[in-house]
Amino acid sequence: MAVLDENISVFHYFEQLTQIPHGSYNEKELANYLEAFAKAHHLDFKRDDMDNVVIYQKASVGYEEKEPIMLQAHMDMVCVKAPSSHHNFATDPLELHIENGWLYANHTTLGADDGMGVALMLALMDDENVKHPDLVCVFTVQEEAGLYGAAGIDPQWLKAHRMISLDGETFGETTISSCGGRDVIFTRTLKRIINHHDVYKITVKGLKGGHSGDAINQERANANVLIGRILQDLMAKGIKYHLVDIKGGEKPNAIPVYASCLIATDTDITDEVINFFTSIKEEYQFSDDAIVVEVEDTISDYAYSREDTWNIVNAIFLAPRSVQAYSPKIDHLPEYSLNLGVVYIENDEITLFWSLRGTLKSERDYMSNQLASLSALLEFEMTSGGEHEGWSYDPDSPLRDAFEKTFREMFDVDMREIATHGGLETGIFKGYDPTMDIVTFGATALDIHTENEHMNLSTLKDAYRFLAYFLGTL
């Protein structure tokens, strides 16, 4: 039984999306759905080997001579769940419920980022009453993994010089610039030894988390960083131990809400860990006040060498973290930052995965070079990728001017222009066509990239109503 009102087209399509697993690199079934939609509606489409899909809808009668417009959203969602959840993002549909006009999933991300945009496009193409010029509807993959779909799509498919990006997350806001980004990964092969010591599991949980572009300036704790601080404090107190395992975070661009590690030692560390955490908890009393640290006994017949342990702990502890500088022009907007989003050991190899963001390439280079120096000192292999440029503010945008004017007329309020520290595919599309006139838009979703992600249903309806009207004014 549907949770949302199926008589409202944009709700119908959003709920359909939630029933199709579509995390990054797992978009094939959703691409199949989009292809089937295009065929059922007799629309031309293109699909590449990455599963990017572009659907073309011809202009309404009387709009044939109007300039085409491109609508764009990404298919993939960030897959984060509560530690207690047994949800399988590769196979399971999301479980939905509504609270006070907000749509939630059951202890998992909702995929409002960017299922809202995908649903809006499908509903617009499905509505014969919407008047519009030629539509170029672009559905990209792997945005959350590094904007790879947009970077890999054939620019010749983008047959428009005007674009509405539907990756906005606050109704009534339009983004006017975005940040560039890069991924940096440390790896190191570890040496196992036989363990004869007691083993303790340290867990950090209860953090708020959030998107590493949107929430990193809110001084929220990073579970991986906290684990590193705890482990370094034990070292500083002369407690000898061997690392057995460490795991934290699920996506490089999400601030980790949970991390744990296992260490082997002859010292009962319980009081030391709890007392240290109590001493630093005050740092987060206003930004992340529900953090919990637990210590429990466990067992393991192996551990990793002291050298491996030393290097891993110091890599986490010494790496720069969070916001490195703020914009001199825009209040509280990060200029460049980095987020240690994922840490794990698999097959006796440690992986540390950072998401770097910087308005300028020189800023991203600076952070990469800091990490490169650290990797050399601590004998890690370092690789980087996922490079994308930012999107600079365009003071002369006829599309944005018309968009804001129409919004004011419909809702009797001015749109708010914002700059974001997050990365947007707009920078890539602008790179393909420097003449591209771009505006961004979306409904309201909160706590994206967390298990508490939720979407405001009334703003999704209003977003559809506005777009349906605005396309007819072009």
UniProtKB/TrEMBL annotation:
GO biological process: proteolysis
InterPro entries listed in its UniProt record: Peptidase_M20 (IPR002933), Peptidase_M20_dimer (IPR011650), Peptidase_M20C (IPR001160)
GO MF entries: metal ion binding; metallodipeptidase activity
Signal peptide: none
EC numbers: 3.4.13.18
Cofactor: Co(2+); Zn(2+)
UniProt keywords, alphabetically: Cobalt, Hydrolase, Metal-binding, Metalloprotease, Protease, Zinc
Keyword Protease: yes
Domain Peptidase M20 dimerisation positions: 204-265
Top-level taxon of origin: Bacteria
SUPFAM superfamilies noted in UniProt: Zn-dependent exopeptidases (SSF53187)
Entry GO terms, CC: cytosol
Top class in the EC scheme: hydrolase
Similarity field: Belongs to the peptidase M20C family.
Protein name per Swiss-Prot or TrEMBL: Cytosol non-specific dipeptidase
Organism, scientific name: Sharpea porci
